[in-house]
Design goal:
Helices cover 27% and strands 23% of the residues. The chain is of the alpha+beta class and 207 residues long. It has one domain: Glutaredoxin, CATH 3.40.30.10. It has an eight-stranded mixed beta sheet with strand order 2-10-9-5-6-7-3-4. A two-stranded antiparallel ribbon has the order 1-8. Strand 6, helix 4 and strand 7 (143-146) form a beta-alpha-beta unit.
Length: 207
């Protein structure tokens, strides 16, 4: 599968899971090339993004205020759906592998939040079953979030990712890393590895 990355002047666009990538939409987040990213191994954002504010429903059926619950914590945020055949499970598996490679104190601090782009099908129990494949042995379980389609789309806009299309199956492939300063300076897309995340997490986790 091909993931389009428009560098410096345009967006990280949409990718269709199990299908060729969609054409990118209007600008969302500008990135520098990996070679120019300096200390980070992911793609460095030209302008850091503030940790977004949105409230959805977690996989236990409780309201989850993303900003309030993750503020000041190293956080990985991804938008996808549980029936995705490739990008979504691969991304979650890479994140889990990365966390296993961290020192125990940092591994215990990292928050991972997966927001469904297919809320019609991804109920709380469905999200729990999906995420249980990846986080069973980790100190912090992954958080699955859902809501109305309007709420989910608003969350994507708040996070500055392209809003998913085609009933949620064409969605951003962008994994965002927020540091303890509540800014995202680096993101990961196709071609990133767990080692890249392991390298970058300590850099954004100093207080």
């Amino acid at each position: 599968m091909r993931i389009l990355i428009i560098v410096a002047i345009a967006a990280l666009g949409l990718t269709g899971c199990g299908a060729p990538a969609a054409e990118p939409s209007s600008s969302v987040a500008s990135v520098s090339t990996p070679a120019a990213a300096g200390q980070y191994r992911g793609l460095q954002l030209e302008v850091p993004l503030a940790r977004p504010s949105f409230t959805l429903t977690d996989d236990a059926g409780q309201a989850y205020d993303f900003l309030a619950r993750t503020q000041g914590k190293p956080t990985l945020l991804f938008f996808g759906y549980t029936n995705c055949p490739d990008i979504c499970p691969t991304t979650m598996a890479d994140v889990a592998t990365a966390i296993r490679g961290l020192p125990s104190d940092l591994a215990g601090a990292v928050q991972v939040v997966f927001v469904t782009t297919d809320p019609a099908n991804d109920t709380g129990p469905v999200l729990t079953e999906f995420l249980d494949h990846f986080d069973g042995d980790l100190p912090n379980g992954f958080i699955g979030l859902t809501g109305t389609i309007e709420q989910v789309e608003a969350a994507q806009r708040a996070a500055r990712v392209t809003v998913a299309q085609d009933m949620g199956t064409s969605h951003s492939a962008q994994l965002q890393l927020y540091g303890t300063d509540d800014l995202a300076r680096v993101v990961y897309v196709g071609g990133s590895s767990p080692d890249d995340i392991v390298h970058d997490l300590p850099l954004v986790s100093s207080t």
